[in-house]
Amino acid sequence: MTSAGLNVTSVVLAGFLQLSDHRFFFFFVCLVAFVFVLFSDSLVVYLVVSRRSLHRPMYVFVAAVLLNSLTASVTVYPKLLSDLSGGGAVQISHNACVCQAFVVYSLGGSSFMLLAAMAFDRYVSICCPLRYAALVSPSAVAALLLLCWLLPACLVGGAALLASRLPLCHSRLSRLYCDIYSFVRLSCGGGAALLSEVYGLVCSTVTVFLPATFVLFSYGRILTICLHRSRSFSNKALRTCLPHLLVFLNYSLSTSSELLQRRLLTASDADASLLTSVLMIVVPTVLNPVVYGLKVKEIFIQAKKLMRCQTRS
After folding, report:
1. Contact indicator for 116, 61 with CB cutoff of 8 Å
2. Of the candidate ranges 83-97, 126-140, 274-288, the one whose mean pLDDT is the lowest
3. pLDDT of residue 1
4. Which of 72, 86, 66, 110 is nearest to 243 (CA)?
5. Which of 77-81, 101-105, 227-231 has the lowest mean pLDDT?
């Protein structure tokens, strides 16, 4: 129990207490999801790295998206499984909560920026094919990848630093992991908390809303081009864009439900908060390798070849 004006040094993740009756079920679901993500993401990344036919920008971006998802899974799932195997609510220190929030938010922002880079690759390939080699060169791809990982890390790092300096007057979060917005809501309020919220909104705009807008613009232009080209060209172009659109919708729906729940629902809506925190962890990480493994023809073919070789040996 805490009261206003008391500086809290730890946070209680009360979502685990709400799962007390279904703890082992969620442990099993998360364990299966984690093992699947480890195997499938690693497989696709290995194929892109080891197969010369996949050494093209589109597949490099696919590998980057899945590597980003794999990194997030490795940093989130093990602690989640450890906490689910215990009993009652989970207590986490002030600094550990901020660090966890930094990892979740920075990698989440990187996901949207990588999808925007992928949309840029598809846009140039379909709408400006003669300039593709110049605009999407290996050096340009490397620069885009660095930007996609470093910019969210720097912006979210600033938000985490601001949040870490806030005195907390409350300690209870109805979630399974920490996020910066919920952490700021535990603070005692005042100008510093308002500054953190405004800065967080700027971070969300730069790392989520602007990349999402660019993705929608790019695929809108691609669709317009396809409507004026031959059926065979349109079918091929749309087939290469479909997996990226599915992954984009996957991230967008999960993130939108998270943002809407946090902004519109009250603190008493604990079940909704818990549900969205579970969906944010499981859904994107599991669906991404399924989409790329099954919908990207070249990756699917290389995966089948690898499996056949392993079976024969």
Report:
1. no
2. 274-288
3. 41
4. 66
5. 227-231
Q: Which residues pair with 12 in a beta bridge?
A: 91, 172
Helices marked H in 51-93: 57-84
Dihedral, 262, 260, 179, 250 alpha carbons, nearest 10: 160
pLDDT score at 152: 95
Is residue 10 helix, strand or coil? strand
pTM: 0.87
How far, in Å, CA of 270 to CA of 174, rounded? 6
The correct CATH number of 10-312 out of 3.30.559.30, 3.30.43.10, 1.20.1050.40, 1.20.1070.10 is 1.20.1070.10
Greatest pairwise CA separation for the chain in angstroms = 68
Ordered by start, the domain boundaries in the chain are 10-312
Residue with token string 């989409």? 291
Rounded CA gap, 295 and 210, in Å? 26
Tell me which range, 53-57, 110-114, 260-264, is most confidently predicted by mean pLDDT: 110-114
Q: In angstroms, rounded to a whole number, what is the distance separating the alpha carbons of residues 56 and 141?
A: 10
